[in-house]
Amino acid sequence: MRRLLPVFALVTAVLNSRADILGLHWQVYLFKPLATLALAAIVLHDRGASRYRMWIGAGLVASLAGDILLMLPMGLFVHGLAAFLVGHLCYIRAFSGDVAGLRAPLLIGVPVFTAAIAMLAYLWPSLGAMRLPVVCYVLAISTMSWQAIARWWVRRTNDAAFAAAGSLFFLASDSALAANRFAAPFASAGAVVLVTYYAAQWAITRSASGPMAGKTDPQRA
Asked: How far, rounded to the nearest angstrom, does the alpha carbon of residue 20 sit from its chain's CA centroid?
């Protein structure tokens, strides 16, 4: 069963992306939650899960809630944003649990936070009442990416590299989503957002499913 989960996640992600691009809403309602649920199952399937895996699994479950809230035609954008914010807080806890956290090199975060501030400045005139929620979200996702990159900088393992790459894909996905929603809508937004989003979640899932995921390197801790 565990070997089939990655295939199932890939197939449902592709089917959801196709349905979203073609405007087949009932298929989006089916495939979108199934894709994220499969990724969460990959991480949480292991009964001997480390704390790292548990926090990544919790982040994927929160992302699942965000996926559902954002796809519903009820104007639940803020609720979906809040769910993803919780997901990023879970990811921050995972990435900062061993060698990053308050000990993470601050300079590594400079490019991430600089890019986040630039995007926020670009969006600011168009945000209106969404300014506070978006600022909170940008702070959370930027911190998440900083912690993921800092963790890779210290550990230099493949699993940590997957997490760092996933955090950057997440930044790209949410930047495209925000630009399309608030500032400058563009035709390929749906495809760009979904491809980078699934790349982000897959990479973060992969970081928690390797044999060394979540194990502290005593020589680097």
From this structure: 19
